[in-house]
Amino acid sequence: MADPAELLRRLLPDLLDPGYARAAARRQQSGRAGEPAHGRTEVLALVLGALLVGLVFGVAAADAAARAPGAEQARRGLVDEVQDARRRTDELSATAGEREARLQQAQRQALAGSSQGAAMLDTVRRLELATGAVAVTGPGLRITVADADGERTVLDRDLQVLVNGVWSCGAEAVALGGVRLNPRATVRQAGGAVLVDNRPVAQPYVLEAIGDPAAMHTRLVDTEAYGRFATFTQVYGTRFTVEPVRSLTLAAGSPAEPELAKKEGGR
Amino acid sequence: MIGIVALVLGVLLGLWLDPAVPAWVQPYLPIAVVAALDAVFGGVRARLDGIFDAKVFVVSFVSNVVVAALIVLLGDELGVGAQLSTAVVVVLGIRIFGNAAAIRRHMFGA
Questions:
Q1: Which of B58, B59, B47 lies closest to B103 in space, CA to CA?
Q2: pLDDT value, residue A13
Q3: Which ipTM score applies to this complex?
Q4: A134-250 architecture in CATH?
Q5: Residue ranges of domains in chain A
Q6: What's the rounded Cα separation, in Å, for the pair B27 and B43?
Q7: What residues 63-102 of chain B have any CB closer than 8 A to a CB of chain A?
Q8: Which residue(s) pair with A195 in the sheet?
Q9: What strands lie across the sheet with A239-250, from one edge to the other?
Q10: Would you say the pTM of this structure is higher than 0.80?
Q11: How far is A207 from chain B (nearest CA, A)?
């Protein structure tokens, strides 16, 4: 067997079917040199062959034309469905916001009257704040984390440590990448993307925490998270900045569905 | 000339008949089209070279289609149908390009 380069070289110039040359040589030998003969069988074969080739083209074209509209229709249908679903989501979230406001108003009316009611209202406020059910505004810290160019050093577990560290420093409300964190929110990785409460978050990761900026900053420096990211900065060139902000606004998150523990059976 | 007329007739016939292509043939249709294109360009070039032979034309077309389809069928069975389809298209594509260039040289002298 020849070496592969030789095979490739032989593949390239050999463009015309050698059969033509051989047939011509045969004709020359049998004395019918020059222009090909136009015998009956020749013409018949030519017509048959050309017809066959044309048929292949025609059938393929018809088939492609028949199939394209189906695929296009399916695509358009899916796009319509997606747009419909999006519109419904917008409508529903608008309705939900409106009802939320009405609910809060009703709560206030019902409870504000008595001292017992006021205490309950206070509890509700605190719980709403803790579960991330309402938007909050206040002073706090903004922590920015970003990988150095081309590196991939910050993983989900680093961000988890950072989030836990911020909570432990007395943060009242935390949002990561614009997603408000409730107590059961998750930070995890799926492939290259970091998902915060199942929503993808891109670099740089911006963590905003509401609380007393000075006190939080002082305590944060002592946490494991701060040490970890300080090391990252030194070793990998990771960007890690902590800055106090006078007024942060964190949007309301999606609080976890309340679940009620029930006693099993009659035991 | 009569070949071109037959070719156009075949195209019109295929479009007009619009036969329902069975699902198992559909993967081989593009391969057949490329093989047919190869046969057509090869035939035209042979004609311009003055060595056209109708029998060679028909046999080369039919055998090209059959062999290409068999290669792709074998690839499908082995799970590399897409790669072998690519291989067939590349080989026939090189031939089509080369023959088209030869035809161009014949017709325009460049």
A1: B47
A2: 61
A3: 0.78
A4: 2-Layer Sandwich (3.30)
A5: 19-111, 134-250
A6: 25
A7: 65, 91, 94-95, 98-99, 102
A8: A188, A200
A9: A179-180, A173-176, A205-210, A136-146, A239-250
A10: no
A11: 47
